[in-house]
UniProtKB/TrEMBL annotation:
It comes from the Eukaryota. PANTHER family: ACETYL-COENZYME A SYNTHETASE, ACETYL-COENZYME A SYNTHETASE 1. Residues 545-623 form the AMP-binding enzyme C-terminal domain. It comes from Nitzschia inconspicua. It is an enzyme of class 6 (ligase). This is Acetyl-coenzyme A synthetase. PROSITE patterns: AMP_BINDING. Signal peptide: none annotated. Residues 86-472 form the AMP-dependent synthetase/ligase domain. Its EC number is 6.2.1.1.
Amino acid sequence: MSTDHQLAKIFPSKSNITLDQYKELHKQSIEDPETFWSKAAKEHLDWFRPFDKVSEGSFEHGDVRWFQGGKLNVSYNALDRQIGKNPNKRSNDIALVWEGDEPDDIRKLTYEEVLRKVCQIANALLRMGVRKGDIVTVYMPMIPELAMTMLACTRIGAVHSVVFAGFSAEALAQRISAAQSQVLITADVGCRGGKQIPLKDIVNDSLTKMDCDSIVKHVLVWERFYTGDAESTPPYEMSARDVRMDPLVAVQRPYCPPEHMDAEDNLFILYTSGSTGKPKGLLHTTGGYALYAKMTTQISFDLHPGDLFACVADCGWITGHTYVVYGPLLNGSTTFMFESTPVYPDEGRYWDMVQRHKITQFYTAPTAIRLLMRYGDEAPKKYDLSSLKVLGTVGEPINPEAWRWYYEVVGNSNCTVVDTYWQTETGGHVITNLPGVTPMKPGSCTLPFYGVNAAVLDPQSGKELTEPDEHGHYEGVMALKQPWPGMARTCLGDHERYLNVYFRPYPGYYFTGDTVSRDEDGFHFIIGRMDDVINVSGHRIGTAEVESALVAHPAVAQAAVVGQPHDIKGQAICAFVMLTVGYEETPELLKELRGSVRTEIGAFCTPDLIVVTPSLPMTRSGKIMRRILRKIVCGETDSLGDTSTLADPSIVDVLITKVGKLT
Ligand code: ATP
Ligand code: MG
């Protein structure tokens, strides 16, 4: 495992606990979860009615429940509670800073303004017949109205299902149909990289598919460039079921009493990225999710009053739910919402925003870091990034090369990099370092969050590994041993799938689907997906390790490796690489790349085939879809599986042709 222990130092702590104190508190949270979570829930949330029990149910039946009998409302906790805590101050505090596609398109909204608008939207939804428990599908760009629409749903107990606004009409139709949503909320257009995306047209198209035409009663449309004139002609063709959102909202009362929700009432539905198969529609409930979102945001990012917390993920993914909307607002912080891309108008966009807004915590994905790293150090160096304290990463294993760039160039060797490992299913971080508390190791998500009982299982026996390998490490299946409040409760309409995917593979454990290596200090390194593990001549090889070795070469911008059947070795390694701008594919370069893998890891990992490609098959959330590459190298191109979340489907044919020529 490529680690750099020299960088494993502890930073001056703002959180006033030590590593030993964290360990002690973590131990208590595992041994006596009742006491830990009961105290946490009372401290971090306001309850209309106290809960009777902390937690009940089992992994076996998939009936885990938290804070039973308790009543609360998430929008109340995110807004009213914040204002109520300190009426003079909080009400004028900025809840949300938004920067649109164009850098000068900026909006700032106070807690008071957000509360009023959320109440108006909530009343508008009631007016349109939405009731507690109804699932509202939301297909919107990253504008403040999206966050406020989500909060308005929670205000009245409606369940939101946010569909990433980059999805096709087909994918949207599937999600509308699965949710049986009578109300769909969208916008006329979305803006990205200087282009407009005609969301309303895509919605219209989706309503002609499956059974959507008969399900959807109302389409509520936000207008991006609405001028306040209700009589004006909307910039799209209106049908009988369309309702203009701005004029409807404007006439509503700016207060709406919060619905008293049971802790286990449904809060939202959200689909996974679809990296390993057909996306799973997961259901999260109210009390446990809210508590977990709040605590992980506060503790993993070391939030303090006055911070400006920027998570640049889209609300179409769980990262946007937990760390753009719910976590920061439940903490009374200021959240930053971003509509555009990291390279618009140029590759300095993120750093320009950090400088202009004085962002203190910045949270993105390895794919963005790798992309920006390949443009060189000039862009970040041009800006004053001294406001930054914590840099977060999520979504895929981060290769040490990118980690170091993030840490040294962006963070000026002065910020904590938090490598947060978690999933749509976990609701919030499950393994992450804590700033000022946990030492950092590049490429390691380090130690579990409070209440998370992490286990490394032998993939064959399903038992916890007790004997380390020759390096003193424990390598196996990443599993969790006991329930935590933020866990998803079921798959929408398919509880069998929930049990089959997460709880039946290794009875007694929650199965993450990932493989991990735990080192001698108990630190975790995610080495890839279970399905992606390659076995060469009896050596189990994680994709992350080989990809890291490739990306460490300056010529490689992104890399993905998969196994290919091999008569003698069992599997051979096949690597797909995207070159950095300015590099060309030559036999010498390919030889050099093979050489770097050989020296970094060992001869047994040398790729048999290296395919240079203009891009990789990625999910729309920016993750590599190795299963597609595996199918291509195995020649099984007629059974590629679910490709609905593929960002650019045209790359598949390009790769099929290229691999066909090489093999
Ligand atoms: P699907 O479940 O549909 O295949 P997905 O697993 O990519 O898609 P998400 O829930 O968005 O959907 O992603 C969770 C996965 O992302 C984790 O299981 C893990 O593989 C990866 N991941 C997230 N954070 C990290 C991290 N910090 N380090 C390593 N891997 C990570
Ligand atoms: Mg997954």
